[in-house]
Amino acid sequence: MSIKVRIPQPLQKLTRGQEEVEAAASDVKGLIDDLEKNFPGIKDRICDGQGKLRRFINIYVNEEDVRFQQGDATTIKDGDEVSIVPAIAGGAQ
Amino acid sequence: MILNDEQIERYSRQILLPKIGGGGQERLLAAKVLVVGVGGLGSPVAAYLTGAGVGTLGLVDSDSVDITNLHRQIIYSTDDLGKAKVEAAKVRLERMNPDVKVIVHKLRLTSANIMAVIKDYDIVVDGTDNFPARYLINDACVLAGKPLVHGAFFRFEGQAMVIKPGEGPCYRCMFSEPPPPGAVPSCQEAGVLGALAGVIGLIQATETLKLILRIGEPLVGKLIIFNSLEMGFRKVKVPQDKNCPVCGENPTITELIDYEIFCGIKKKESE
Prior knowledge:
heterodimer; A: Ubiquitin-like (UB roll); B: alpha/beta; ThiS/MoaD-like (chain A)
């Protein structure tokens, strides 16, 4: 199983600069765990202490926000594209 | 409002467009747009809205022009260094197009002043650089029912979205709360490609013009993400969240909040 995961700029330090990585999982929770295995520290940036998605980071499976699907139980299949999208603030400075 | 001969000539290239015409131009000249933050995003926004003949342009910024601004804040020149941004911008923009009345608000928006500042404008464009301002502007626009054109960037990537209160999701429907201080690096720490700010600012300018002209499909309920390194756009869906703390069914935010300014060097200024 191979799922493409888009890594946003603020997390690319953890993926050694890669903008897109591959992961193997059947749901969002498994995807985050798989990412953590390969890129230690990334789970803590995406999830809070209870393992819930942080409120300023969203995960989209093929353009759909998983919060409006089944949350971290949202299923993912081979060929899906997952995007991790954080709030960013830059503008004036 | 009736266009004079000079205006017909000045705006001829957009009046020619079937979806704009003379009526659209009159609409632009009658429009009042507030640009909050006249920096990397606000500069191109203000420049293009001025060129298009948006009749009243409000500019909010409390900063002065710094040499580190010039690589992306394209309405300022080297001889503007040290001048208040809003004042330097006003001179430049009114020289570009004397049809445009530029109103300067040399201040930092707070929960105490924001409603009074946005009240007189039809559309608010967010070109700020920090989360406290972004959430404050979102909440104020939701409470006031003002369309808001959001844009932000980080290093080589940017985002934009249009918020039409009552018709679609707001920023908090997407990200319900700002990150805690230090969780997301600021632009001062992270750097930015100047032209990227231009791309995002021009998406904001384009969406603003579409809203004024009531043409096309506004970027409502969708976040556009631009990656300058691979040169591509992606859109993700942003549903309206019935549990949104500000625009949901049972809002918990009914008053404006001043989050602590945590964006690096900047300290909150007193009014």
